[in-house]
Amino acid sequence: MSEKKNLKNDLVYNLLIVLSFTLFTFGSYAYLNKPLEEPSWPATIPGFAFSPFHDDQSPFSDTYPDQKSIDADLSLLSGRVHAIRTYSVDGVLGDITALAAKHNINITLGAWLGADLDANERELTRLKNIVQRPPYNVVRVIAGNEAILRQDLTVDQMISYLDQLRKDIQVPVSTAEPWHVWLKHPELAQHVDFLAVHMLPYWEGISVNKAVGYIVNKMNLLKQAFPNKPIVIAEVGWPSNGRSIGRAHASKENEAIFLRRFISKAREEGYVYYVMEAFDQPWKAKLEGAAGSYWGVYDVSRKPKFEFYRPIIPIKQWRILAISSILLAVFLVIFLLMDSSSLKKRGRTFLVGVAFMASSVIIWVLYQHSLLYQDWISRTVGLMLMLGIMGVWLVILVEAHEWAEALWLQKRRHLNLASPTPVEHHKLPFVSIHIPAYNEPPDMMIDTLNALSKLDYPHFEVLVIDNNTVDEAVWQPVQNHCETLGERFRFFHVSPLAGYKAGALNFALRHTHADAQAIAVIDSDYKVKPGWLKQMAVHFDDPEIAIVQSPQDYRDFDQNAFKAMCYAEYKGFFHIGMITRNERNAIIQHGTMTIVRRSVLEEVGGWGESTITEDAELGLKIFEHGYQAAYEPTSYGQGLMPDTFVDYKKQRYRWAYGAMQILREHAGALFLNKTHLNLGQRYHFIAGWLPWIADGFNFVFTLLAIAWSILMISDPVRFNAPSMLVSAVPILFFIFKLSKMLILYRTRMHAGFSTAVAAAIAGLSLSHTIAKAVLYGLFVGRQMPFLRTPKQANVAPIAQALRNVAQEAILFTFLALLLIGISWHVGFRSVETLVWCIVLVVQMVPYVSAVIFSTISVLPNSSAKWLQFK
């Protein structure tokens, strides 16, 4: 009855917290989209800049709209504008004048002038012909558009064109340049009938709230400098999308605010102006970057992008976005809280909060992406980007779940497995202890055997299987020592023997004593404690238990700083991750300090020789057959750690590569539930490997980030930094993972801050190694040699240590150079560029960690006293 009441209370609390986050999410969307009262758009404005290209058209590809399409555009603008400004008379663009006359629209006719002088002559000749023939609706001529700013033409060349044009036609003539070009070259004003000025405060990094005042100030400067010249604002506008520049942010909301405020002020001041521009022009991205596509008052489909008269709502569809975020969050919450009865309220609140944050970011990124004009390449890249972002959030959710269960569990459901009922000696199982060895130092092996000889256990044997060691001087002393320890100790030297470690263990299984009921395995460097078997073998009194596991531990961690840092990194898995996994009977079996029920081992076919992590694969096979495991987080034996960083990397490469082999071979069991695995077990095995898989795909992201950064430096106009929201995801992911590790080390393992940081550096230093192992294991999959982890190796010099991280050092250097290149060549006027540089710094962290850690590894006398372990 009490349990039902608790479940009901938990359900009520879960519903309340979900409702609270739902209201907060909806309320946040509503608050951020409050209607904004701005001056109304007038029925008619003086002018629009007019380019009639549609989504699949571009002057670069010589794909132009036809007259019918242009006529439809002019019909849409008819009655809403007095005049339009064109930029060229090339091809069908030269017909705009006649088409506009049908709709009572005047023309400020433009001629495109550039570095090609012959093309300029052709353009000006056609312009003169158009002006001098009916329907005579050209009210102004603008020859050249920012040609001096682009340095396509000199001031003297432009003056020559203007003087000749003013002689040949009878309408006012000018050239269009930003306001500062006119002030810089005042002599130019003497050769025009009016100043055609561009006022685009967005490009100058002016905030939308100060933009109109900024234009008024610059107009006053021009009036003072040129008191006798009429001024026409030939371009004025704001983009609805694109990168930020200084304090100027591109958005539909800001476009609407700026234009409605400017038009109201222009009416007061009596400005003649042309709004930049009538319709979005996606082709302009090649000229101006992302923002170039989005200056239109109407989008490329000719639909208005904002309200003209009613209050401005930043995002009209905000209710749809809010509901979508909430629905996705509820789905994630159901998944995260599916088995949360043992979680404290704080843990459940934390998971619900992360789920709502994840859903909001995902929906917002999808919405922002939907606003972009895309070709098939950008659609493909966008799809990959979306999948990547969702993958990152999936890993964050998995990490959050482990975080919550490690920190806020009320009680551990399987904690009783660590305290079994004592069993009488005659009921304890006969245990056969197997020690596979290859080319191991004989003194170390003898220490291992001596420790086993002191076991306080009635029924056991020890089998040493030396496979393929060539030098007799290495294995013979071990064989001799086994003979001195008595008949319990048997030694086998087998050469050749296929199958690596699994092959040696299967050989030992075939030679195990007929009465043995359990098989224990330890590495050749392990010194076990006398009470190991007595404390652990009693778990087999439960017939459902097939695996009994205690942590790996190490006795040389205080030898130097390198080993102490390795030790700190190892402990997190065995004292946080394994305990959490044990809650759902999903521990990772590791190949030392493990004991397996012999009948089950034989039932599943022995040790698998198709993977290089036969221990973890065996554990999964046993779970697939429906058996249980017992994990006791107590150290009953200690081994030796890798002596060098390269050996440390080899060990982790083997683990990660083997995990990918297991994932491929057992995909049916893990994803399709073709065995006795329950949902919790499948979750932990898949989720446990997700961070490694994330490292693999993060390496791909690093390569893409390098490529994109090179493009940004080589062509900063066309290639802008990714949107801030997209760049923020990898930064958030890094901060989240690092915070989780530091907090759990401090709270669950009671480690000092320096110890937690040391563990983080050690873990990060392996990211590149894990990435290579994952990608090779997933996409190449060919069987690779078993990588042993040598013990008691000679420490390499610093030069060798740097060679051991050559790839990491190259990638770090390359990223650092790109960072310098972006800061020097692109600059930080754009917030997106600054955030992108932070992304590059985050991507550098694992590589610099590898360089630091490899250097520490060659300092054998470095102190480990600054690291504290409990």
Describe the structure.
It catalyses: a 1,2-diacyl-sn-glycerol + UDP-alpha-D-glucose = a 1,2-diacyl-3-O-(beta-D-glucopyranosyl)-sn-glycerol + UDP + H(+). It is a multi-pass membrane protein. Keywords: Glycosyltransferase, Hydrolase, Magnesium, Membrane, Transferase, Transmembrane, Transmembrane helix. This protein is an alpha/beta fold. The protein folds into 4 domains: 2-33 and 316-407, no CATH class; 49-293, Glycosidases (TIM Barrel); 431-543, Spore Coat Polysaccharide Biosynthesis Protein SpsA, Chain A; 546-870, no CATH class. 51% of the residues lie in helices and 10% in strands. It contains 28 helices and 17 strands. The strands form 3 sheets. Strands 1-2-3-4-5-6-7-8 form an 8-stranded parallel beta sheet. Strand 9 (431-437), helix 13 and strand 10 (460-467) form a beta-alpha-beta unit. Helix 22 (679-714) packs across helix 25. The two termini are 41 Å apart.
Helix count equals 28
The Cα radius of gyration reads 36 Å
Order of strands across the widest beta sheet?
1-2-3-4-5-6-7-8
Helix percentage range: 40-55%
Pfam families: Glyco_trans_2_3
Main location: membrane
Protein name: Beta-monoglucosyldiacylglycerol synthase
EC number: 2.4.1.336
Notable traits:
51% helix, TIM Barrel, 28 helices, eight-stranded parallel β-sheet, Spore Coat Polysaccharide Biosynthesis Protein SpsA, Chain A, alpha/beta, 870 residues
